[in-house]
Design a protein that fits this description.
The complex is a heterodimer of chains A (about 220) and B (about 450). Chain A is an alpha/beta fold. Chain A is about 40% helix and about 20% strand. Classes of the chains: A alpha/beta (about 220), B alpha+beta (about 450).
């Protein structure tokens, strides 16, 4: 899961990025509306944390632009401006949630998690696929009730598949959503992660579609 | 003493002037008419005087008349029409009308060639108008003085009749002028009255600026007033922007501190987190007040409750869309359309936003916003079907920063910020039990 953080205050941006990274997200940062807007236009994000009071281009304008050009990733507005007047303006511009400063990191993480889950069409924080269960709040993975220990990268790959069950996910898409933009991407590592997941969970959990990518579905549900 | 009403003052001054001018004018007219009548009277006396002069003759050094005046008035006894001829203080001839009365005509003796006109009292105590002339007659050693009189009552009568007509006319004229003045003042001051009505409209929130055409004397005042109103609106906007900027400036560092505190272990982190929370509460509270204070005392502000609540409903239904496993909250708006309250839109939105958010937070799925007009107030009720608040704890909820349930997220400032704002707007906030089963919050605000 890849998240964009657009915030002009460097300390806060660093804290949010660290919090999100620790929760298992790949994070890109932008210090102003111009760069944030550009990243949102060009990179596929699973969620955006957007400050409203930004230098160069303000958050509402950036959000309006995204929505008008069909960018529909979930956006969490993070702002010091907490009047209802501004909340209404934010939601009308296309925001999905609103968090006012100051906030607790757990609150922000919970909101981002919920946004990503809902945008993939899941209402419950527990994602299931056959015998595999992923608790998005804790990152705990179980198979038939017993806990499985996964590395951070393995969890990222599994989490993306769990959110997009029943759909063929290309290797490029997987890379784009798992690594932030500065990461040295290597498609071979994806194959390694998938092999490990198959080994740790179930051999037939993730199917390979030659030349197209991979898919994950509960047994009995084709893809 | 001058009254405070400009209209009354103008009318009183004008009427005083009218009365004074008419009185002086009347006196002058009356006097000159009397002079005119007197002159006419004198002309007839002079004619008789001249006639008499032509009859004067001297026979052997004594005075004699070749003829006597023909006018029969001088024959009727005590008619008031008399004549006498006096030489050296002695009456040598007199009209028959004098009869045996003692007429002391002389009194005044004009010098030769002079003609005098004056009044005396006659034999019957009537007033007489006298014309007297002294001439020399050829053959006489002394000058003769001829007196002619006529009853002055004829002059008085004409003068009186004229005065009566004059009084009536002047009275009517005075009344007419007074009516004209009153009309002039009323019509002339009408723009001021219009001004007052428009100002009242602004005060009552029916208008935002002065409209209509005004005379050139009032126009600058109206322009200045409009400028002042705009300036006021600008000041509010600036104060609000200022408050917003301050919030942004303060809250971002607070967010950094708060996150830093969360990542610290032990009591120090906890203390820091608590202090950050206290600071945030203070900032929120005072910014809300500062923002609201900007909008107070400014006439002409009104907020559309229907408009505001439908915007809030849109947002809140999205915020709470995933409540109750995705069923969300059903917010119904009852008779809010077209309701206006006196106050700044943002402030009213802030109050209603907090109330509706609170209701959604606690509700089990249903929230209802309804309004009702009571006298000059609009009562906005926000009801929910949540757990409600027990009666004995309701006062506490409205008190500063008190939260009944520390576990539900929120600053705990919601209801008492609304309470503060409502108080500043001369309104009130009351909590009660709702027919939906939960809490009913009644916000009373002055209608616009």
């Amino acid at each position: 899961m890849r998240v964009l953080v657009v915030e002009d205050e460097p300390d806060l941006r660093r804290q949010i990025s660290r919090g999100l990274a620790e929760a298992g997200y790949s994070v890109d940062e932008a210090p102003d509306g111009e760069e944030g807007g550009f990243l949102g236009d060009t990179e596929p994000y699973d969620a955006v944390v957007l400050d409203l009071g930004l230098p160069k281009v303000d958050g509402i304008t950036v959000l309006n632009h995204w929505r008008q050009t069909g960018r529909d990733m979930p956006v969490l507005i993070l702002t010091a401006r907490d009047s209802w007047n501004e909340k209404v303006a934010g939601f009308d511009a296309g925001a999905d949630d609103y968090l006012t400063k100051p906030f607790h990191m757990e609150e922000l993480l919970a909101r981002v998690r919920a946004l990503i889950r809902r945008s993939a069409g899941h209402a419950s924080p527990n994602l299931e696929c056959g015998p595999v269960n992923l608790d998005t709040r804790s990152g705990k993975v179980t198979i038939d009730g017993s806990t499985v220990s996964l590395t951070a990268h393995e969890l990222k790959v599994l989490s993306y598949f769990m959110h997009h069950q029943g759909r063929v996910v290309s290797q490029t898409e997987l890379i784009e959503h798992i690594y932030d933009q500065d990461f040295d991407r290597d498609s071979n590592t994806i194959e390694v992660f998938i092999a490990r997941l198959r080994k740790k969970l179930a051999p037939d959990l993730i199917k390979t579609h030659r030349g197209r990518g991979y898919s994950m579905a509960a047994p009995g549900e084709g893809a | 003493m001058f009254t405070r009403s400009v209209s009354l003052r103008l009318i009183l001054l004008s009427v005083t002037w009218i009365v004074a001018a008419l009185a002086v004018g009347g006196a002058v007219l009356s006097k000159s008419f009397r002079n005119h009548v007197e002159n006419s009277f004198d002309v007839s006396l002079h004619r008789h005087l001249h006639e008499m002069m032509s009859y004067a003759d001297a026979v052997d050094g004594t005075f004699s008349l070749t003829n006597r005046p023909t006018d029969p008035s001088y024959l009727n006894a005590l008619s008031g029409w008399y004549w006498e001829v006096v030489i050296d203080g002695e009456v040598v001839e007199r009209s028959r009308s004098v009869w045996d009365a003692d007429l002391t005509l002389p009194g005044k003796v004009p010098t030769r060639g002079e003609t005098l006109g004056y009044y005396i009292d006659g034999p019957r105590n009537e007033r007489l108008r006298v014309a007297a002339q002294t001439v020399s007659v050829a053959g006489l050693s002394s000058d003769i003085t001829v007196y002619f009189t006529g009853p002055a009552i004829e002059i008085d009568k004409a003068s009186e009749e004229f005065n009566e007509t004059l009084s009536w006319s002047l009275l009517l004229l005075g009344l007419g002028l007074t009516i004209a003045v009153v009309l002039q003042v009323i019509l002339g001051l009408r723009p001021l009255k219009l001004l007052r009505t428009r100002l009242a409209d602004i005060h009552a929130g029916r208008a935002e600026r002065m409209t209509g055409r005004y005379p050139s004397e009032v126009e600058p005042l109206v322009a200045d007033l409009n400028e002042l109103l705009e300036h006021n609106a600008e000041v509010i906007e600036r104060a609000r922007t200022h408050a917003g900027n301050l919030a942004h400036a303060l809250k971002t560092p607070l967010a950094v501190l708060s996150n830093e505190a969360d990542s610290m272990d032990g009591d120090r982190g906890k203390t820091l987190a608590e202090q950050v929370s206290v600071m945030n509460d203070l900032v929120t509270r005072h910014l809300a007040r500062a923002r609201a204070a900007g909008g107070l005392g400014v006439p002409g502000l009104k907020a559309d409750v229907g408009d505001i609540t439908s915007g809030l409903k849109r947002v809140l239904q999205r915020i709470y869309a995933y409540k109750r496993d995705g069923q969300g909250v059903n917010i119904s708006l009852v008779s809010v359309r077209g309701q206006h309250v006196a106050g700044d839109r943002q402030d009213i939105e802030e109050m209603l936003g907090n109330l509706m958010d609170n209701a959604c937070k606690w509700s089990a799925g249903r929230v209802r916003v309804s309004t009702q007009v009571q006298g000059k107030d609009v009562i906005i009720s926000v009801d929910d079907d949540g757990p409600g608040v027990p009666e004995e704890m309701r006062a506490e909820v409205l008190a500063r920063g008190k939260r009944l349930d520390e576990a539900t997220p929120g600053s705990g400032l919601g209801l008492n910020i609304v309470n503060d704002l409502a108080g500043m707007y001369l309104g009130s906030l009351a909590l009660g039990a709702s027919d939906l089963g939960g809490l009913s919050v009644r916000l009373t605000l002055p209608a616009a």
